Amino acid sequence: MDEALPVATIRTEVTVPLRFPDGYATTARVFSFDGLADGREHLAFGLGDWAGVVARQATDAPLVRPHSECLTGDVFGSQRCDCGPQLREAVERITEAGGFLLYLRQEGRGIGLYAKIDAYALQDSGLDTYAANLALGRGADERDYTVAAQMLAALGVSRVALLSNNPDKAAQLGRLGVTVVDRVSTGVHLSPANADYLAAKASRGDHALDLPFVP
Predict the structure, then answer these.
(1) Alpha-carbon distance 97 to 49, whole Å?
(2) Which of 32, 101, 148, 198 has the most Cβ atoms closer than 10 angstroms to its Cβ?
């Protein structure tokens, strides 16, 4: 049964040119919102022919990635996770297909930036990324995608091809009334620094990752 979804509205939209450190560049239509359930400042980036795909929803679906903010990975290039490479990949793939990147302020799988750094310290002592969150008295994954569903509704999107390896995103969006017509896997951005992290995502978070090994 679908959960009741509070109504959000578009607050402001502007066009922003984007350029990544590797030289890739594109243009996004950036949307802010009023009425989001958690009161945080989440953004939607319309990429490629997003408007055309939305207009063709009866036969098509925009490619959508709900991307959780990761200051260390997205901005500073930390290799303890795969967030930065996933963000870069998503922007290009969505630009090619037409759709939206939803940039969600859910640092550390929802526990916040300082708690994430605390979890890093526990990981250095041997805990995996999920066990570290639990040791802090937090949830292994506290993310709630109600705001993502609200943003999509405000943008006129009811059907999506979901760019994610995480089955929980599809499950939550489905309960919130978004029809996930396909789940499209992202690449595996493996490095020596994030191998244990990715293995934990695959084994404990059920992420669809084709890893060459399990530590």
Answers:
(1) 7
(2) 148
Cα–Cα distances in Å, from 52 out to 14, 48, 60? Answer: 18, 9, 10
Neighbours of 4 (CB within 10 A): 8
Q: How far apart are CA 132 and CA 142, in angstroms?
A: 13
Q: What is the identity of the amino acid at 188?
A: V
Strand order in the sheet with 43-47: 9-19, 25-34, 43-47, 99-104, 63-68, 159-163, 179-184
C-alpha–C-alpha distance, residues 105 and 150, integer Å: 14
**Within the chain, which residues score under 50 in pLDDT?**
1, 205-206, 208-209, 211, 213-215
Choose among 172, 202, 204: nearest CA to 185. 202
Are the C-beta atoms of residues 36 and 8 closer than 8 Å to each other? Answer: yes
**Strand stretches in the chain, DSSP E:** 9-19, 25-34, 43-47, 63-68, 99-104, 159-163, 179-184
On whether the CB atoms of residues 151 and 34 are closer than 8 A, the answer is: no
Residues shown for the chain: 215
In three-state form (DSSP H/G/I as H, E/B as E, the rest C), the secondary structure along 181-203 is EEEECCCCCCCCCCHHHHHHHHH
Known catalytic residues are 141, 143
Helix (H, G, I), strand (E, B) or coil at 137: coil
pLDDT at 190: 58
- Residue 203 pLDDT: 54
